[in-house]
Design brief:
This protein is mostly beta strands and 360 residues long. It has three helices and 16 strands. The chain folds into three domains: 50 residues, no CATH class; 106 residues; 160 residues, no CATH class. The chain is 10% helix and 45% strand. The strands form two sheets. A nine-stranded antiparallel sheet has the order 1-2-3-4-13-12-11-10-9, with no helix packed on it. It is globular, with a radius of gyration of 33 Å.
């Protein structure tokens, strides 16, 4: 089929009769048509321009962050503190900055203290800090409690940024000195979780610690408990940066009974991290790799003073004024017109810091 004009060619394309055009006629139309470009060529040209615009797209603005590292030895435990200074604008210019603090001991790093915001009119890359700890007054086990302070020093003026009066960390503390403590024992461990058993108020409780890898050496941990088919979340999420395999990190979980009525209904619950101290290459005892030569660094990561659970509690001891309710029979089943509400986050996770400023 012969095509005598560009307009005839356009009609054929619109009518899906392009297969009827001979090759020589099609080439002639493409050369002759300047005022009315064909549809196929226009689409190809548009796609090429889109590809070029995507290829030459501007890169995202660079966000800067400045890390200051301070080291000290508390007792016999080397500690490292990292202060992150992040500009709101992403650049080193006068404006608002967010300060975050992380703490590292024996290859385990975690964020501590709440972030704080300050306005800086000085170079954030030329800052000076005073980072120090001093022993706490009373702690069990002894030698683990430290008070931490971090101050920003600029042009002869000091500004307090962080403070923590309950930094508990130490090497081989004497946990046996804790009276009436009930310690959990590890019953299962694999690549994703550790399960501990403990008696709390005469009730057998299972503590399940799980972790997932977020990126590189960053891991997300959670802690749940279960007793006779009923459980809950104790720590919804806390993040750790590890220099070693997470299977090398274990936990020390123990409870201490609190004053309560009835007796055995309330407990203090503490969770500590436990990591093996590597033997130094120059240590002469390194040739004797015996279990009783091992040393561990412990650091407390969470506690609660109101873990309320017990077994066969004697509620009658509440006194003669107590009025006990009685069951009215089996429960009623109600069909709900709407799905249940989303569960509220566990209030007990408020003591765990998970910040994005460190890229965590």
């Amino acid at each position: 089929m012969e095509v005598d004009s560009p307009r005839s060619f356009k009609k054929l394309v619109d009518g899906s009769r392009l297969s009827e055009i001979s090759g020589s006629s099609l080439a002639a139309v493409l050369r002759d048509d300047e005022e009315c470009p064909d549809y196929v060529a226009a689409v190809i040209l548009t796609d090429d321009r889109c590809a070029q615009s995507t290829t030459h797209r501007r890169p995202l603005p660079r966000q800067e962050r400045y890390l200051y590292i301070y080291r000290l030895v508390a007792g016999c435990t080397p500690l490292q503190f990292t202060i992150s200074v992040e500009p709101e604008s992403g650049k080193a210019r006068p404006g608002t900055y967010t300060f975050n603090l992380s703490f590292k001991a024996n290859g385990i790093e975690r964020p501590i203290c709440e972030p704080t915001v300050r306005t800086l009119n000085v170079d954030p890359r030329q800052l000076d800090f005073a980072v120090f700890v001093f022993p706490g007054k009373n702690s069990i086990p002894t030698g683990c409690l430290w008070s931490l302070c971090v101050w920003l020093r600029v042009n002869g003026v000091d500004h307090r940024l962080f403070g923590n009066d309950e930094l508990l960390v130490g090497k081989d503390p004497d946990f046996n000195s804790i009276g009436d403590a009930s310690f959990a024992r590890m019953k299962h461990a694999d690549a994703k979780e550790q399960i501990y058993h403990a008696y709390v108020g005469r009730a057998l409780v299972y503590f399940n610690i799980k972790w997932d890898r977020v990126s590189n050496n960053l891991y997300k941990y959670s802690l749940e408990y279960e007793a006779q088919g009923v459980g809950g979340v104790l720590i919804d999420e806390f993040r750790l940066k590890l220099d070693s395999d997470p299977k090398t990190v274990s936990f020390l979980i123990y409870s201490v009974p609190s004053n309560s009525v009835p007796t055995g209904a309330a407990h203090k619950l503490c969770v500590w991290l436990r990591s093996l101290v590597p033997l130094a290459a120059h240590d002469s005892s390194a040739m004797y790799n015996l279990p009783f030569n091992d040393s561990y660094i412990y650091q407390r990561v969470w506690k609660t003073d109101s873990f309320e659970i017990g077994s066969k509690l004697e509620f009658e001891t509440l006194g003669p004024k107590m009025v006990m309710g009685f069951s009215s029979g089996r429960p009623q089943t109600i069909l709900m017109p709407h799905p249940p509400r989303d569960p509220q986050p566990a209030a007990s996770t408020s003591g765990i810091k998970t910040w994005e400023s460190f890229g965590w």
